[in-house]
């Protein structure tokens, strides 16, 4: 317990904390077992629906190489905000973008799904009427890629039924429905000439965008509010797809949206603590998204809060006093953990500020030991998350055999607040990855932030759909495909609209 070594905690308290820390420790052998289980679950999920991992075939059969051109709309639902973007792919690994953000209230997240989809259509309408977007040519609709960051059962590039919500969404009458159809219906009701062309998970968007800018990518992964990954699989291994799922020539490969947040729902391989169990029991989706609940930003703060309360109740922390905020479900945001771990000062001034100002803890109850304990709690929870994350990355390296027979770099495109901002998260992931795949492969693994996968990736998805459509109709693709490619050039523009388009 290095981070508590310099405290004046008594041996009984240290022993108490040590027992907690042990629960969060995952040793190398356990990490390897997790990777092996991933590989088994990949295979099962590719063979049959309804397995531990959804392994969703995305109907994306090619990765971009940076030469793609065209202008498309992208709509992004699944993170903090709803975003509408107009993306112009310039074909030389360059893009131009305009975007507007719209707030998604809790009422929309938990109300009737039709209201949510109406709101999405209204936001597209608002974007088109307030942004300098040239109209499509006569009779041509604008092509839109929807980044929808939830598990769907996808049956075509533009069709997919929601399996279940994650990350705090629970709008009614959406599960089992085709989300693209719901969006298209909402747009059609408003006579908005936009065609929903491609349904893209954010991880798929991340993979596509990273490939566009880097020329290749083995994995697109999100470590943010939620967690998930997408990779390119050999099509012959996707045996669960019904015969006839493709007209004409079968593709050589297909991007698979793993939906790895659901890994170990059966609780076989990840060691769990009482704090995880409490979180799960009190969540809106108990027994679902087990891996995500140990890893992602939506949950890490809540695990820490559970630990802190337990310590308060055992009179080890804050002289046994809590606060209204600390007692509130999800009252300790993962962002605070990140700020706490960023404070490297001896006395922990920022930690104290967070505890008093954000968490409402009485300053008098906070001694130096308390500061050390709070830092320690954040460290053990985030440290485990980083370690567990490495297992999914290692499993993909094994599954795709991408490191074998070459000395190439293995490009991994990532996005999400944890990997982008949490101090030491990537280092922790890399450290465990090294033990899992060996030092030379770990060194060759280039983890890079994907540039706006949800916007640029959705545009690349829409372009892929348009290409496939034109190929089926025997119409050649011109240069500058897509619509409105005569847009004025300009820097990215972002505006935030507080429920302007509310239904
Ligand atoms: C969703 C995934 C998504 C991930 C990251 C998870 O909760 O199920 O579809 O890719 O979050 O946003």
UniProtKB/TrEMBL annotation:
GO CC entries: cytosol; mitochondrion
Keyword Nucleotide-binding found: yes
Keyword Kinase: yes
Keywords of this entry: ATP-binding, Glycolysis, Kinase, Nucleotide-binding, Transferase
Domain Hexokinase C-terminal: 219-463
SUPFAM superfamilies for this protein: Actin-like ATPase domain (SSF53067)
EC number: 2.7.1.-
Cleavable signal peptide: none
InterPro entries: ATPase_NBD, Hexokinase, Hexokinase_C, Hexokinase_N
A GO molecular-function annotation: fructokinase activity
GO biological process, any: intracellular glucose homeostasis
Listed pathway(s): Carbohydrate degradation; glycolysis; D-glyceraldehyde 3-phosphate and glycerone phosphate from D-glucose: step 1/4
Annotated ranges, domain Hexokinase N-terminal: 17-212
EC main group: transferase
Family: Belongs to the hexokinase family.
Protein name per its UniProtKB record: Phosphotransferase
């Amino acid at each position: 317990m290095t981070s508590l070594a310099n405290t004046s905690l008594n041996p009984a308290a240290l022993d108490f904390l040590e027992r907690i820390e042990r629960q969060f420790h995952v040793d190398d052998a356990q990490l390897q077992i997790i990777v092996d289980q991933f590989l088994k679950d990949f295979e099962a999920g590719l063979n049959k629906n309804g397995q531990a991992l959804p392994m969703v075939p995305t109907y994306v059969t090619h990765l971009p190489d940076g030469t793609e051109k065209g202008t498309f709309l992208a709509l992004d639902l699944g993170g903090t905000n709803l975003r509408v973007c107009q993306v112009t792919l310039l074909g030389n690994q360059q893009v131009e973008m305009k975007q507007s953000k719209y707030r998604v209230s809790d009422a929309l997240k938990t109300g009737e799904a039709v209201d949510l989809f109406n709101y999405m259509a209204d936001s597209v309408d608002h974007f088109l009427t307030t942004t300098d977007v040239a109209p499509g040519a006569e009779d041509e609709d604008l092509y839109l890629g929807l980044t929808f960051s939830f598990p769907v059962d996808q049956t075509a590039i533009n069709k997919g039924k929601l399996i279940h919500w994650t990350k705090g969404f629970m709008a009614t009458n959406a599960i089992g429905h085709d989300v693209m159809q719901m969006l298209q219906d909402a747009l059609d009701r408003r006579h908005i000439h936009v065609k929903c062309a491609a349904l893209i998970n954010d991880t798929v968007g991340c993979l596509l965008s990273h490939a566009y800018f880097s020329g290749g990518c083995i994995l697109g992964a999100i470590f943010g509010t939620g967690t998930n990954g997408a990779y390119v699989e050999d099509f012959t291994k996707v045996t669960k797809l019904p015969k006839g799922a493709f007209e004409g020539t079968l593709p050589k490969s297909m991007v698979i949206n793993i939906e790895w947040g659901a890994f170990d729902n059966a609780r076989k391989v990840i060691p769990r603590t009482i704090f995880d169990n409490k979180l799960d029991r009190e969540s809106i989706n108990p027994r679902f998204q087990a891996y995500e609940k140990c890893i992602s930003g939506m949950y890490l703060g809540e695990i820490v809060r559970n630990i802190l309360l337990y310590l308060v109740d055992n009179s080890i922390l804050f002289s046994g006093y809590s606060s209204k905020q600390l007692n509130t479900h999800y009252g300790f945001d993962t962002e605070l953990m990140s700020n706490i771990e960023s404070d490297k000062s001896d006395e922990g001034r920022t930690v104290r500020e967070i505890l008093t100002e954000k968490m409402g803890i009485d300053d008098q109850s906070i001694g130096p030991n308390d500061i050390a304990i709070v830092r320690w709690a954040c460290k053990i929870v985030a440290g485990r998350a980083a370690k567990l994350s490495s297992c999914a990355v290692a499993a993909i390296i094994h599954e795709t055999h991408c490191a074998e027979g070459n000395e190439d770099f293995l490009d991994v495109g990532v996005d999400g607040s944890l990997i982008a901002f949490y101090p030491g998260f990537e280092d922790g992931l890399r450290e465990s990855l090294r033990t899992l795949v060996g030092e030379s492969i770990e060194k060759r693994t280039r983890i890079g932030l994907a540039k706006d996968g949800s916007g640029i990736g959705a545009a690349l998805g829409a372009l892929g759909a348009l290409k496939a459509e034109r190929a089926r109709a025997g119409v050649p693709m011109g240069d500058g495909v897509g619509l409105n490619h005569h847009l004025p050039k300009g820097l990215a523009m972002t505006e935030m609209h507080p429920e302007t388009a509310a239904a």
